[in-house]
Inverse folding.
């Protein structure tokens, strides 16, 4: 594939410099070091959209605290299969990051991952009963061992003093806590990975915006790119990954591949409240996830998180979901309208009808005053004062809309989807959840779908990077515990000096 004469021809083109392209590029550099790779990013730096540390919640999603990954069945039992799946996917990321650190390809893991207890918190008798049953079901799996449950307010005061301070004692309250959770700075990680790719001579072109993708007669993909001087350039590649975040749908539509039809996008904006008052910040040390309000979408589950950003500890509360027609934070108000094409108009209309309540909810959320948001925060921090908290605008999420057998036409999806051409020459990542935490798993899926002819030869290297590749960790507790210990050591997660105990 290599030794190409023309400098505008690449083996691989990655569109977008977010965590997904960073991850795919880094994996491919290990598997096929000679391939010529080019990255186009419309902004002037890597990791400035959803992957930026201020634009997402930085939770290393391993299903240790997110209540929406476990479902209560009609008989009262709790289905933990999705939680197991997400936890295993996060273990894949941990192993890959640990490989990169151990090989000195990236350094200073404390700059992108910190140990932080993950907790779920509920109130009311029924919710407390659910949380107990959920705890019992989860702790049967080796993946969730070490999780604790408590409905004792003295214990909870020890775990979450800020949340328990001045709280009315008449409502039943309970929490689970597990110390193996993490706070991940995906922005820092993205920048580290692009620095590494730059050192490996990947051509990273910032301020280059891809505006079209077309198939050439000889089966390559030809990209029309507006460069940093405002001029048009044309570049070709055998394989293109569309990692444009919210910008991926429109680029996928431009490829014209049959797999791009009948798909739409539904944008959801987000806001956080941030507390920079050190006295308050020091009173909390965890990610504490609550339950979504009735009618709220899963991505607006409220949580109060300790964050490590810009070498400083802060507290973030939210996200408050809202409606904006933009597909990227730096996008255009026309994004939603221009994503409607002849082939997806019925899907989009059906979704419009189905999502009236959700849209109404999101519009109401956008209109909330700061005081109303502080009132929601007081559910978590009863004595929160408005002057200690500021509003920050988070990233945009574009949820996939498609026709499904179970949901029918125009069904809103809350997960991530890899859409690829039948011949594997182009792939796009759509959707936003569980997002950056599972980037390595998702990019391995891209590799499985798009490079099946190389998989056998690449497998030993993949197993070197991800020792659990192809193995269920839930069913192999010994391997799980070994990997948990070794990755904690390499990533510095076992270092007690990095764990702040209240
Ligand atoms: C509010 C919020 C909270 C979240 N919380 C979490 C969390 O706690 N944990 C977690 O794991 N995930 C979380 N996520 C999801 C996570 O942030 C995303 O899944 C992830 O960052 C997506 O990475 P990406 O590389 O696909 O996209 P992005 O980081 O958005 O990168 C896409 C890049 O492509 C560029 N681009 C777009 N179009 C073009 C074009 N035409 N030409 C050139 N460049 C282009 C953009 O400028 C951008 O830099 C959250 C997301 C949001 C919005």
């Amino acid at each position: 594939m290599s030794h190409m004469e023309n400098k505008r021809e690449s083996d691989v083109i990655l569109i977008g410099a977010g965590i997904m392209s960073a991850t795919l590029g880094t994996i491919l550099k290990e598997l096929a070091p000679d391939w010529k790779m080019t990255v186009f990013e419309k902004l002037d730096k890597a990791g400035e959209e959803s992957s930026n540390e201020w634009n997402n919640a930085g939770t290393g999603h391993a299903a240790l605290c997110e209540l929406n990954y476990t479902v209560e069945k009609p008989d009262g039992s709790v289905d933990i299969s999705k939680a197991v799946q997400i936890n295993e996917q996060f273990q894949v990321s941990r192993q890959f990051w640990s490989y990169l650190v151990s090989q000195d390809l990236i350094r200073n893991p404390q700059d992108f991952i910190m140990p932080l207890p993950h907790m779920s918190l509920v109130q009311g008798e029924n919710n407390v009963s659910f949380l107990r049953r959920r705890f019992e079901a989860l702790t049967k799996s080796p993946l969730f061992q070490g999780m604790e449950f408590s409905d004792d307010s003295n214990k909870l005061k020890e775990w979450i003093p800020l949340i328990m301070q001045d709280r009315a004692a008449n409502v039943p309250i309970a929490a689970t806590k597990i110390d193996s959770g993490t706070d991940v700075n995906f922005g820092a990680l993205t920048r580290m990975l692009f620095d590494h790719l730059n050192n490996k001579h990947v051509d990273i072109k910032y301020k280059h915006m891809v505006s079209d993708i077309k198939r050439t007669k000889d089966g390559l993909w030809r990209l029309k790119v507006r460069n940093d001087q405002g001029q048009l350039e044309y570049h070709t590649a055998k394989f293109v990954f569309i990692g444009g975040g919210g910008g991926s749908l429109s680029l996928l539509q431009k490829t014209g591949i049959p797999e791009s039809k009948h798909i739409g996008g539904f944008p959801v904006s987000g806001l956080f409240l941030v507390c920079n008052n050190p006295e308050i910040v020091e009173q909390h040390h965890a990610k504490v996830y609550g339950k979504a309000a009735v009618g709220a979408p899963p991505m607006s589950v409220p949580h109060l998180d300790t964050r490590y950003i810009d070498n400083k500890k802060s507290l973030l509360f939210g996200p408050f979901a809202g409606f904006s027609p933009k597909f990227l934070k730096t996008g255009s108000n026309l994004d939603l309208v221009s994503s409607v094409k002849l082939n997806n108009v019925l899907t989009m209309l059906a979704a419009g009808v189905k999502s009236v309540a959700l849209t109404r909810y999101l519009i109401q959320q956008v209109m909330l005053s700061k005081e109303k948001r502080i009132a929601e925060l007081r559910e978590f921090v009863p004595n929160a004062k408005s002057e200690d908290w500021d509003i920050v605008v988070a990233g945009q999420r574009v949820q996939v809309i498609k026709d499904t057998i179970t949901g029918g036409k125009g069904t809103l999806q809350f997960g991530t989807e890899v859409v690829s051409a039948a011949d594997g020459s182009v792939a796009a990542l759509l959707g936003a959840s569980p997002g950056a935490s599972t980037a390595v798993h998702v990019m391995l899926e891209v590799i499985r779908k798009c490079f099946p002819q190389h998989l056998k030869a690449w497998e030993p290297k993949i197993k070197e990077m991800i020792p659990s590749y192809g193995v269920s960790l839930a069913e192999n507790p010994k391997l799980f515990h070994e990997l948990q210990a070794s990755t904690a050591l390499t990533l510095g997660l076992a270092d007690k000096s990095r764990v702040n105990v209240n």
In short: The chain has one domain: 3-70+83-454.
